[in-house]
C-alpha cells in the first residue's frame, strides 16, 4: 500500500487533541469509557438492530452505558467498565441494581450469549471478508 505520509509522523494522542474534555487524559494510562463505548458501538452496529451510547445515564472515565436492541427485538442496557460488559437492564436506559449478571470481556462474547441472529450476522460478515481477501489475493 502506498501512502503520502509516514505513520510515525502522526501525533500519538490525536484523538484527545480534538476535544479539550479529553486533554486531561493525555499521557496517562487511563482509558476513557466514553471513547471505549463509542468504539464498541461502531464495532458491532452492523450485527444488531440498534445500538448507541446512553445520553440519559451518566458516563464517566471509568463507566459508560450502552443501549442495544438485538435483531430479535429484545432491548438491553449494558454497563461498560474495566471489568468488561454486562447486562444491567432489560430496557433502554434502565439500570436494575439487583441484577448481578455475568461480566463479558468483549462485546462479541456478550452479544454471542444473547443473540443467535448476532452470531449469524457476525459469521456472515466474517465469511464475506474472507471471500474478499481471497479474491484480492487471486488478482
Structural overview:
One of its GO terms (biological process) is regulation of canonical Wnt signaling pathway. This is GSKIP domain-containing protein. It comes from Hymenochirus boettgeri. Belongs to the GSKIP family. The protein has 4 helices and 4 strands. Strand 2 and strand 3 (75-81) form a beta hairpin. The protein has helices at 14-18, 33-44, 107-114, 116-138; strands spanning 50-53, 64-69, 75-81, 84-89. 35% of the residues lie in helices and 17% in strands. It has a 4-stranded antiparallel β-sheet with strand order 1-2-3-4, covered by helices on one side. The longest helix is centred in the last third of the chain and has 23 residues, at 116-138. By secondary structure, the protein is of the alpha+beta class.
